[in-house]
Amino acid sequence: MNLMNIPNAYKHDVLSGFWVFLITLPLSLGISIASGFPPVAGLITSVIGGMLVGFIGGSQLTIKGPAAGLIVIALGAVHELGKGDMVLGYQLALATIIFAGILQVVFGILKLGVLSDFFPSSAVHGMLAAIGIIIASKQFYVLLGVEPQKNDTLSMLAEIPYSIFQLNPKITLIGLLSLFMLFTLPLIKNKIIKRIPPPLWVLIVILPLGKILNLQEEHTYTLLNNQYFIGPHYLVDLPDSLFSSVTFPVFSQILSMVSIKYIIMFSLVGSIESLLSTKAIDYLDPYKRKSNMNRDLTAIGVGNILSGLIGGLPMISEIIRSSANINYAAKTRWSNFFHGFFLLVFVSFFPTLLQNIPLAALAAMLVYTGYRLASPHEFSRMYRIGWDQFLVFIIAFFVTISTDLLVGILAGIIIQWVVNLYFGLSIKHTFHCKYSIIYNDHEVIVQFFSSAVFSNYIQLKKVLDKLPRNKTIIIDFAKASLIDHTVMENLNHYSRDYQQEGGMFIIQGIDSHKKLSSHELATRTKKITV
């Protein structure tokens, strides 16, 4: 859509860019610190993502920048590659980000954006919920002002009750007050309060509180006969100049198996998150524009190459900030540019203000983000869809927490495949579906004679994409043995898109199938189960 056809586009984009900048600023700092990177790394990534990558990407309203979903990978890379040396680990991790970016450019050139349609929906949600728990478990200790004894997630979760008795009261006050504000402010209906993002409200309140508690000066204080230490190491450590903080990668271990593992993880998980986020934002776009997924993937890759070269975090198309961008009435990709521009100006001219932000406040924002990814509502939603999807979700969730993201998503794929085999999927139709197409004057009927499941949906989508637009499309599953939840969900989205283009999209022949739950997108099978 031409910018000239959108009334007051620049005005809306400048304002939205400003509000998104206010959300991005504290989150970028928090994500950097949680990732084991210097705080400025997230700001570098956000500036590159906003001012450069947004213009070469294939989407209009997504915000490019660091994301909580990659914290687990980034922190793991720093620890494993550095072997205790965090600075060296950071420089070695930058090299893996560059090569992951190169791989993402290749993905885009090979038109692998379609991979967003392959992964089982429940497995992806299980992985994201696990990421939420991992983030929250690590940041809870920062919120309390204590150091955990162990680094693995399960041990850290088990250690939380003990750590509560070791908390630093002043730091915990800052953390819990920040967390309270993040949970309660969205519930307040006042227009003025709702207009300002909750993270900004946190900074407005916590910055003066940090001054009152004198976090800038090293000292001890006594409370209930216990003595506690406090000082500037509980504040953000940021250089006075953005340019002086540029760090270059070290490539000495780039061919090691550890580096290769993290290149794969950065590229695959980052690509999956970006594609899913971009797809979700397309549904929210008031002008119903469709993103070029392959071009967007290529742009993310270019951004990661640039970010890794000068010391930044990996970037993706980030869903929370992108949703906020739409809520603040953004119209074009210029909103992404302005969000990066405001960040650059603020960091360049007001670094002292950033250096007074308590780490506990940033930790609270990440604990809140983790909660949103792994909220009880997410677990209950998956359970309502059906026991099969809850099984896939919960296994992907626990395997991810116990091992890593790649193993977790792989476990989810395998369990979904095994479940589909149980419900009647033929092995020969795992990646290939059997169908016929009947063309009539005003309608096209696609009949299926095999299972329609997550692993053959890419073929199904290619079939649908080749059909004429502005027609009546009838998808007939009467003779299909199985339609899994991922296909039901994807077809629901596809139907919405097709009808917005002026056509009709009808799914029929599913009433004779057994639903695994009352949910409208539940798996449907003709196999009788106990």
Structural key phrases:
four-stranded mixed beta sheet, alpha+beta, globular, 20 helices
Please characterize this protein's 3D structure:
- This protein has 530 residues and is an alpha+beta fold.
- It has three domains: 3-369, no CATH class; 383-425, no CATH class; 428-525, STAS domain (Transcription Regulator spoIIAA), CATH 3.30.750.
- Helices cover 58% and strands 8% of the residues.
- The strands form four sheets. The chain has a four-stranded mixed sheet with strand order 5-6-7-9. Strands 8-11-10 form a three-stranded antiparallel sheet.
- A hairpin with an 8-residue loop joins strand 10 and strand 11 (524-525).
- The protein is globular, with a radius of gyration of 24 Å.
- The termini are far apart.
Condensed summary:
The chain is of the alpha+beta class.
Structural classification:
alpha+beta
Strand order of the largest sheet: 5-6-7-9
How many DSSP helices? 20
Low-confidence stretches: none
* Assembly context of the chains: single chain
Percent helix, as a range, is 55-70%
Query: Mind describing the biggest β-sheet?
Result: 4 strands, mixed
**Strand count:** 11
Mean pLDDT rating: 91
| Radius of gyration, whole Å | 24 Å
Q: Please indicate the count of domains.
A: 3
Cα distance spanning the termini: 52 Å
* Shape annotation: globular
DSSP strand content: 5-15%
